[in-house]
Specification:
The chain is 35% helix and 22% strand. The longest helix has 18 residues. The chain is of the alpha/beta class. The strands form 5 sheets. Strands 1, 2, 3, 4, 5, 6 and 16 form a 7-stranded mixed beta sheet that branches. The protein has 3 domains: 247 residues, FAD/NAD(P)-binding domain, CATH 3.50.50; 116 residues, FAD/NAD(P)-binding domain, CATH 3.50.50.60; 108 residues, Enolase-like, domain 1 (2-Layer Sandwich). The N terminus is likely disordered.
Length: 510
C-alpha cells in the first residue's frame, strides 16, 4: 500500500476534525528545512519513542533532525491509545445507563447509542490532542522536522526527500504495524485492523473479532456495549491468555454480560466473501461448528516491524521479521545507531517506548550505560473491569526457579468496591518466598491501570509489602485493597511461636 493510500485509509472520513488532525501531524504544505552540516542525533520515526528522543535531546542542546513519512504521533495518537480510549469511554457510558437500574436510577427510554456521534467525538478529541505531537511544535523546540521516507545511505548518513543528513548518532523508531495472520480466505476479503477500525461511521450489526488479546477484548466489549452482536474468536482457551487465569476469568464474565460470544479453542477457521460485502466466518469451538455472516471483521492479531526501505543493510544494522536487533543499552549492531519502541521491544506500549527513548538519550549523548532490562514496565488492558499487571506472573517465577508467596485481596471484601458495585475484581501480589520483596502483581478493578502504579513504584525503588502496609490510604478507596494485601503479609510474620511469646508478655503485664 502506498504511503498516501495508507494515510487515507486511517484518516477517514475527511471531516473538519480529521482535516485538523492532518494539518498538525502531516501538513500538506510542509517545506522541509535546509539540512545542517551534521546532526548530533537523527531520529527516524515520530511516534512516541521518536518524539521523546527528539524533544529530550533538543532540550539538552543537541542538534536534532526528526523524520516521519506518515503521521506524527504514531500509533498512539492516530490509531491506538487515543482513539481507542475515547471509544471505550463512550461504550462505558452506554453500559452505565444500561445498568443504572441496580442503583435505583431508572432511565425510561433505555439506552440509545448514536454511534456516529460517539465516533465524531473521538475524532474531535484526537484532533484536539494532535498539536502536542505536531510538526510545528517540534520545529518550535528547535528540531529540524523532515516529512518523507528516511533511508540510511551508510552508517553515518540518512537520505530523506532528496536531502542527505549527516549524523553522529541515529535512532530507529519506526514502530510496528498490523500484519495479516495466515488465515484461509483472509486475502480474499475486506477486513479491519486497529489502524482502520476508527474510520467507521456506522455501527456494524454483527462484528467478528479475531484474537482475544488486549486490542481484541477492548474492541469486542466496546462494540457489544454499543449494540453490535460480537463474535470473539481465539485459538487458545479463554481470553487474554498471557494474564493470570483468575484475572482474565473475571474480565471474561464481564464481557459475557455485555453479550460478547467467545469462540475459543478455535480450529479450522475459514473466511469467505458473503453477499453485500459481508464476511462469512466458519470455525470449530469446543467440538461445535459455527457458521456466521458478519457485517465487519476486525483482525486483532499479528504485528510486523516497520523495517522495509530503511536501508538497514547499508547501515550495517541487523534485523529480523520480528524486530531490529539491539543490546541491553538499545544499540543496534552498528554502535552509533540505536533503536527504541515497538521496532525492537517485546513490550509494545506507549509508556515503554517513552522510557526506552530516555535510555537512548542517556546512552547516545552522554556515554551512559542505562539498561532496558532495568525498566519495571506495567501494562493495562482497558476492558471493564480493567486488568493491569507488572513484573512476573506466578508461573514465570516458577519457571525461573523462584519460590514465591502470593497474597490476594478480593474486591468483594473492600468497602468502596462494595459501595460502587464493582466487586468483580482482585489485587494479587507475588513476593519472593519468606520476604516482602515484590516480584509481580495483577490488579483487576475499574481503575486498575491507575492502581498498579503504586506497586510499580514500590518495585522500582525496592520497597516491600511491609512499606505498603505502613502507608496510610484514604478510606474508603479501592486502592485500600493494596494496603490490605500488605496487612496480609504482616500477619504471616506473627508465627505461632511469636504469638505465644506475646501472649505470655501480655499475661505478665496484666
Amino acid at each position: 500500500m502506498a504511503d498516501n493510500e495508507k494515510d487515507e485509509s486511517i484518516i477517514s472520513p475527511w471531516d473538519a476534525h480529521n482535516q485538523a488532525l492532518v494539518s498538525h501531524v502531516h501538513p500538506s504544505d510542509w517545506i522541509n528545512p535546509t539540512p545542517a552540516s551534521r546532526y548530533n542525533l537523527v531520529v527516524i520515526g515520530a511516534g512516541t519513542a521518536g518524539l521523546v528522543c527528539a524533544a529530550g535531546a533538543a532540550s539538552l542542546g543537541a542538534k536534532v533532525a526528526l523524520i516521519e513519512r506518515h503521521l506524527m504521533g504514531g500509533d498512539c495518537l492516530n490509531v491506538g491509545c487515543v482513539p481507542s480510549k475515547a471509544m471505550i469511554r463512550a461504550a462505558r457510558a452506554a453500559a452505565a445507563v444500561r445498568d443504572a437500574g441496580r442503583f435505583g436510577v431508572h432511565v425510561p427510554d433505555g439506552v440509545d447509542v448514536d454511534f456516529g456521534q460517539a465516533m465524531e467525538r473521538m475524532r474531535r478529541l484526537r484532533a484536539s490532542i494532535a498539536p502536542h505531537d505536531s510538526a510545528r511544535r517540534f520545529t518550535d523546540l528547535g528540531i529540524d522536522v523532515f516529512i518523507g521516507d528516511g533511508r540510511f545511505v551508510d552508517a553515518h548518513t540518512v537520505e530523506v526527500a532528496g536531502d542527505r543528513l549527516a549524523f553522529k548518532k541515529a535512532v530507529i523508531a519506526t514502530g510496528a504495524r498490523a500484519a495479516a495472520p495466515p488465515i484461509e480466505g483472509l486475502g480474499e476479503i475486506s477486513y479491519l485492523t486497529n489502524e482502520t477500525i476508527f474510520s467507521l461511521t456506522e455501527l456494524p450489526g454483527r462484528l467478528a473479532v479475531i484474537g482475544a488479546g488486549p486490542i481484541g477484548c477492548e474492541m469486542a466489549q466496546a462494540f457489544a456495549r454499543f449494540g453490535s452482536e460480537v463474535f470473539l474468536v481465539e485459538t487458545a482457551h479463554g481470553i487474554l491468555p498471557r494474564e493470570d487465569a483468575d484475572a482474565s476469568g473475571i474480565v471474561f464474565e464481564s464481557m459475557q454480560k455485555d453479550g460478547v460470544k467467545l469462540l475459543c479453542c478455535g480450529k479450522e477457521l475459514k473466511l469467505a466473501r458473503a453477499d453485500g460485502g459481508k464476511v462469512r466466518l466458519t470455525v470449530e469451538s469446543h467440538g461445535k461448528a459455527y457458521d456466521a455472516v458478519v457485517d465487519q471483521l476486525l483482525v486483532a492479531v499479528g504485528r510486523a516491524p516497520n523495517v522495509e526501505n530503511l536501508g538497514l543493510d547499508a547501515a550495517g544494522v541487523a534485523f529480523t521479521k520480528k524486530d531490529v536487533q539491539v543490546n541491553d543499552q538499545l544499540q543496534t549492531t552498528r554502535p552509533n545507531i540505536y533503536a527504541a519502541g515497538d521496532i525492537c521491544s517485546p513490550y509494545q506500549f506507549t509508556h515503554a517506548a517513552d522510557f526506552m527513548a530516555r535510555i537512548v538519550i542517556r546512552n547516545a549523548l552522554f556515554f551512559g550505560r542505562s539498561k532496558a532490562s532495568a525498566l519495571t514496565i506495567p501494562w493495562c488492558t482497558y476492558t471493564e473491569p480493567e486488568i493491569a499487571h507488572v513484573g512476573l506472573y506466578e508461573k514465570q517465577a516458577q519457571e525461573q526457579g523462584m519460590e514465591v508467596d502470593t497474597f490476594t485481596r478480593e474486591l468483594a471484601e473492600v468497602d468502596r468496591s462494595i459501595l460502587e458495585g464493582h466487586t468483580n475484581g482482585l489485587v494479587r501480589v507475588h513476593v519472593r518466598k519468606g520476604t516482602d520483596k515484590i516480584v509481580g502483581a495483577t490488579i483487576v478493578a475499574a481503575n486498575a491501570g491507575d492502581m498498579i502504579s503504586e506497586i510499580t513504584l514500590a518495585m522500582t525503588h525496592k520497597l516491600g509489602l511491609k512499606h505498603i502496609a505502613d502507608t496510610i490510604h484514604p478510606y474508603p478507596t479501592q486502592a485500600e485493597a493494596i494496603r490490605q494485601v500488605g496487612d496480609a503479609y504482616n500477619r504471616t510474620r506473627l508465627t505461632p511461636f511469636a504469638k505465644s511469646l506475646f501472649s505470655r508478655l501480655m499475661a505478665w503485664r496484666r
